[in-house]
Write a sequence for this structure.
């Protein structure tokens, strides 16, 4: 899928803890709740949390696919009950948002160097 300018839409999903990170998942096209469950929660989040014996609090932003009934039911069925309630419009509270900002900065620097 592309945007109105013909540029392919994609996003990168990742999870971090104080000491570790999940694998990065590249998602092409829009991410709905079913895809979020099937491509992120089931194959990445659940095994990661199980490896750590569910000793982490799972935090996600309030994107529709995150808070949709299908996603929240999956978390509940799989006993991921420590989901942090997240205030709307609060990316500054999310540790991974700071990491994404750093990656954007590095990406912009790389673009400048490639143009030279």
């Amino acid at each position: 899928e592309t945007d109105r300018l013909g540029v392919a839409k994609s996003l990168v999903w990742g999870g971090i803890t104080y000491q570790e990170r999940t694998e990065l998942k590249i998602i092409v096209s829009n991410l709905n709740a079913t895809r979020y469950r099937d491509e992120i929660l089931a194959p990445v989040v659940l095994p990661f949390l199980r490896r750590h014996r569910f000793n982490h609090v799972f935090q996600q932003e309030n994107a529709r696919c995150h808070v949709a009934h299908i996603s929240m039911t999956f978390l509940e069925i799989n006993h991921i009950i420590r989901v942090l309630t997240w205030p709307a419009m609060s990316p500054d509270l999310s540790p991974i948002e700071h990491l994404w900002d750093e990656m954007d900065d590095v990406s912009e620097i790389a673009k400048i160097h490639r143009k030279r």
Observations:
- Helices lie at 33-51, 64-67, 69-77, 95-115.
